[in-house]
Amino acid sequence: MTLLELLDIDLPIIQAPMAGVSTPELAAAASNAGALGSLGFGATDAAGARRMIAAFRERSRRSLNANVFCHEPARADRAVETAWLELLRPHFARYGATPPRELKEIYRSFVADDAMLAALLAEKPRVVSFHFGLPAAERIKALREANIVLLASATNLAEARAAENAGVHAIVAQGYEAGGHRGVVDPDAADDCLGTVALTRILVKELRVPVIAAGGIMDGAGIAAALHLGAQAAQLGTAFIGCPESSADAGFRRALAGDSARHTVMTRAISGRPARCLQNRFTALGTGLPARQIPSYPIAYDAGKALNAAAKAAGEPGYGAQWAGQGAPLARAIPAAELVRVLAEECSLSRGGER
Q1: What are the tens digits of pLDDT across the range 262-321?
Q2: 190 with 320, same domain?
Q3: Over 80: is that where the pLDDT of 152 sits?
Q4: Cα–Cα distance between 256 and 254 in angstroms, integer?
Q5: What pTM was estimated for this model as a whole?
Q6: At 346, which CATH number?
Q7: Do 84 and 177 belong together in one domain?
Q8: Could you list the residue range(s) of the whole structural domain that residue 122 is in?
């Protein structure tokens, strides 16, 4: 069975599950056009996930990819968190605000979220994908027994082999060019920063399961290149941010259409984990800061969201989590269904065409 048959889609295109930007409207439009639409549940709870799945199903009967974060639960450190809030205090003050008195772990990891597992088993999306690592074997077993297709992101061969051995059906090869959170299992370990081309080719040669290329792919030429490398599909995230169905705010859209798109930065300052972002005020704030000064993910994100809210209220959008990949200058502000159609035409591929 090919990957397209396994996912039950027509085109080798996956709209990436961008938590906070993907919407049911975006995912449904992508799925209805023949791609795999995705929703990111890393920033919501089980009830929120159920609502998003229901909203998707009101608009589409096609396959859905439900993405969850599998990071190690946060390690609170009051001294680090207090020092971080003091470092941010002048930035809050610039917009007439004060930092929170304390920081919280605002998102729960899937590895410890029984309610999210129960929701996924009840709702049975066609696909569940893992980011930041893998859940326990019993969770993978339960999802597989529910006939759910499992994907996992990997940034190197060791992560990919671990996912393959755990029973994942296909691997998302996340190159260093990719926007958003880097999928590394251990954010404090050395990162070889493998690009999409090298990583995809290595995984295709070394793995038994299909590989999906991700990172810097923005158009049909990029999809065709990924397929030529041996990937069976390409995952695109930044390409869909400009679509009217995404929840990107006006400031993010302006930045994506401007010079900032040409200058993306890998930063931990916003969320506590490495993530590629359009260059903005927050990425500048984090330049040169050692990782030990930044609270754990997602505790740091609590501060980041508060600072962004204060700045936005004063008319400054430059503290947002404007996650985007290195292909950002190629983004197009067109409806998602039209984008999928254009991507397919540019790639000249469909289920019945050349592989």
Answers
A1: 999 999 999 999 999 999 999 999 999 999 999 999 999 999 999 999 999 999 999 999
A2: no
A3: yes
A4: 5
A5: 0.96
A6: 3.20.20.70
A7: no
A8: 1-73+108-245+335-355
Q: How confident is the model at residue 354 (pLDDT cuts 50, 70, 90)?
A: very low
Indicate if 289 and 215 belong to the same structural domain: no
DSSP 355: -
CA distance 3 to 149: 10
> Do residues 39 and 172 both lie within one domain?
yes
Q: Which of 42, 40, 13, 38 is nearest to 28 (CA)?
A: 38
Residues 186 and 312 in one domain: no
Quote the number of domains for the chain: 2
Can you give the three-state secondary structure of 10-38, one letter per residue? CCCEEECCCCCCCCHHHHHHHHHCCCEEE
The answer to whether 6 and 170 have CB atoms below 8 angstroms apart is: yes
Task: Note whether 45 and 79 are same-domain residues.
Answer: no
Q: Provide φ and ψ at 342, rounded to 5°.
A: -65, -40
Query: Nearest to residue 91, comparing CAs of 322, 310, 320, 323?
Result: 310
Alpha-carbon Rg for the chain in angstroms? 19
Name the residue among 223, 222, 219, 237 with its Cα closest to residue 153: 237
For 305-315, the pLDDT digits (tens) are 999 999 999 99
Tokens of 133: 């690592």
Mean of the pLDDT values across residues 214-242? Answer: 97
20 and 98 co-located in one domain: no
339 and 239 Cβ atoms separated by less than 8 Å: yes
Interval 63-90: pLDDT, tens: 999 999 999 999 999 999 999 999 999 9
Instruction: Establish how many alpha carbons lie within 13 A of residue 315's alpha carbon, considering only the half-sphere containing its beta carbon.
Output: 0
